[in-house]
Amino acid sequence: MRAVRLSVVTAAATAAALAAVTGCTEKSDAAGGDGVIAVTATDTKCEVSKKEFPAGHVEIDVENKGSKVTEVYLLFPDDRIVTERENIGPGTSQKVTAEVKAGAYRIACKPGMKGKGIRQDVTATGGGKVAKRDPRLDKAVADYRAYAQQQADETLPKAKVFAEAVKAGDIEAAKKAYADSRIGWERTEPVAESFGDIDPKVDLREDGLEEGQSLEKDWTGWHRLERSLWQDKKLTDRDSELADQLITDLTDWQKRAGRAEITPTSMGNGAKELLDEVATGKVTGEEERYSHTDLVDFKANVEGAEKSYELLKPVASENDAALAKELDTQFAALNTLLDKYRTDKNSYEFTSYDKVGKAERKELSDAVNALAEPLSKLAAAVVK
Amino acid sequence: MTDTTNSTDSTKAADETEATGDMQESNSRTPSRRSLIGWGGAGLALGAAAAGGAVAMARTGDDAEPTAAESGAAVAFHGVHQSGIATPVQDRLHFAAFEVKTEDRAEFVQLLKDWTAAARRMAAGHTVGEGAYGGLAEAPPDDTGEALGLKPSRLTLTIGFGPSLFGKFDLADRRPEALVDLPKFAGDNLDKNRSGGDLCVQACADDPQVAVHAIRNLARIGFGKVVIRWSQLGFGKTSSTTPEEQTPRNLMGFKDGTRNIAGTETDRLKKFVWVGAEGPSWMAGGSYLVARRIRMNVETWDRTSLQEQEDIFGRDKGEGAPVGKAKERDEPFLKAMKPDAHVRLAHPDSNNGATLLRRGYSFTDGTDGLGRLDAGLFFLAYQRDVRKGFIPVQRSLAIDPLNEYIQHVGSAIFAIPPGVRDKDDWWGRALFSEEA
Question: Where does the signal peptide begin and end (chain A) (predicted)?
Answer without folding.
Answer: 1-19
